[in-house]
Write a structure and sequence with these properties.
Layout lengths: L5 E11 L2 E10 L2 E6 L9 E4 L4 E4 L1 E6 L12 H10 L2 E6 L10 H14 L3 E6 L13 H4 L5 E2 L9 H12 L4 E4 L12 E2 L2 H5 L4 E2 L2 H17 L2 E4 L5 H12 L4 E5 L1 H5 L20 H13 L4 E2 L14 H4 L10 H10 L6 H16 L15 E11 L18 E11 L2 E5 L2
Parallel strand pairs: 1-4, 1-5, 6-7, 7-8, 8-9, 9-10, 10-13, 11-12, 13-14, 14-15
Antiparallel strand pairs: 1-2, 2-3, 5-16, 16-17, 17-18
Helix pairs in contact: 4-6, 6-7, 7-9
């Protein structure tokens, strides 16, 4: 990627060490060179007029499905990176439910080669916990660790306690995280939406909350015994929030994420359309309120999209028959800003922490708590006052299934800069 030598972003509301401040930011060779209140007298580079938009560190998504290799009819590395850039993300971590699964250096290299060729942003894969994500045979963690964000069998939970304990023992030696999809398969009973009032009233099979929190409880206990860094994927229940909160109070190495849709919707909002079907499902209003509280008080560390595109045919079969998964990269910030910040439930700084700061800390990346000279120019410029109507036909992703379709959200991504280069720009 060719680096633009010089950029000056003028009149931006910049997140500095002392809070937001209207000033100009000069970028040279991929780094923040200067933050100044006056425009440089001699400047021959690209000038970007921010007009009061906020300028903050770019977002990091710890949980996306970009479908390549193996399922490129759903999404590709190229289209996924375009969608990520449009959402303000400059780093995403790809999940391993691929074909071939990244369970060896040979298989991982297939994905890394595509990333090197087609990605416009930074992409870091997760390798699998077990070979083929079958829950039985462990992979070689030491060999894979230098090339991955961590290890996950996302899409399925590791059902065997003994296998999970051995996995944690092995992964703990690498210093990487184990990102756990927590789901007890024996408790699913054919369910596909939340086992709540909507399911009962509309004759659908429900997924009970215990299928999530029971395995969360097990994995937290195992992480305490093995000193493994446990990160819990896409939490959706009030019981899970409580378990994580108690684990943190004990000082355990446990972090977690939730998705924007779990903070916005509850099962009374469901419609008979595939765009409302994902795993875990949208749950009760009590669960949603517990998730909101958990995000506000820091129990929930990270907002992650679980971006999971499918073909139009796969998502056109209603709640019962459609594939699990919705897209989220391009609506993530606005969805949470609208639900949590514009509504007055939490400050903007908390959202920035959950999308830009804490994910970098968990992944061991360079920390970017605010914008300062010398830091990498990985930035996002946002008009937090602009409202827009969500139209999936305008998405960069190949997926179109979103529960936000037709809704009015607030907070429009105007520009995303990665390594000093504008990779998304609507100005």
């Amino acid at each position: 990627m060719k680096t633009i030598p010089s950029i000056c972003i003028t009149s931006a509301n910049v997140l500095t060490e002392k809070g937001f401040k209207i000033c100009n930011v000069i970028i040279e060779k991929g780094k923040i060179a200067e933050i100044t209140e006056s425009f440089p007298k001699q400047f021959n580079g690209l000038t970007i007029k921010a007009d009061g938009c906020i300028l903050i560190p770019s977002f990091v998504d710890m949980h996306v499905h970009l479908r390549e290799p193996g399922f490129s009819y759903k999404e590709t590395i190229a289209t996924g990176s375009e969608a990520a850039a449009a959402g303000g993300f400059t780093t995403v971590c790809t999940m391993p439910n691929l074909n071939p699964a990244p369970d060896s250096l040979e298989n991982l290299k297939i994905q890394l080669d595509i990333i090197d060729k087609d990605a416009r942003i930074n992409m870091v894969p997760f390798a699998t916990i077990t070979k083929g994500r079958n829950g039985n045979e462990l992979v070689d963690y030491q060999k894979l660790a230098p090339f991955v964000a961590g290890f996950s069998d996302d899409g399925t939970g590791v059902q065997s306690e003994s296998i999970m304990r051995k996995a944690m023992e092995g992964i703990s030696k690498t210093g990487k995280i184990l990102s756990a999809h927590c789901e007890v398969e024996s408790l699913l009973n054919g369910g596909y939406i939340h086992d709540g009032e909507y399911a009962r009233n509309n004759h659908h099979k429900g997924i009970n909350s215990e299928s999530e929190w029971k395995e969360v409880e097990r994995d937290i206990q195992l992480s305490q015994k093995t000193v493994c860094r446990l990160h819990i994927c896409h939490i959706s229940t009030k019981e899970t929030v409580d378990l994580v909160r108690k684990a943190k109070q004990k000082g355990l190495k446990v972090t977690c994420e939730t998705g924007p849709h779990y903070l916005t919707f509850n099962d009374s909002d469901l419609q008979e359309e595939g765009r409302f079907k994902m795993n875990p499902p949208i749950r009760s209003i009590e669960d949603r309120e517990a998730l909101r509280e958990g995000l506000i008080d820091g129990t929930i560390d990270v907002i992650a999209t679980d971006h999971a595109p499918h073909s139009e045919e796969e998502k056109s079969k209603g709640l019962e028959k459609s594939a699990m998964g919705v897209v989220g990269l391009e609506t993530a910030f606005a969805a949470v800003y609208t639900t949590m910040v514009a509504s007055g439930l939490m400050p903007l700084q908390r959202l920035i922490e959950a999308m830009a700061i804490t994910p970098r800390q968990i992944l061991g990346m360079k920390e970017m708590p605010y914008i300062q000279p010398g830091m990498d120019a990985d930035l996002v410029l946002i008009d937090i006052n602009e409202k827009y109507r969500v139209n999936p036909q305008e998405f960069k992703t190949m997926g179109r299934a979103t529960p936000y379709e037709g809704m009015t959200l607030q907070g429009k991504i105007k520009m995303t800069i990665y390594n000093g280069n504008p990779v998304y720009n609507t100005l």
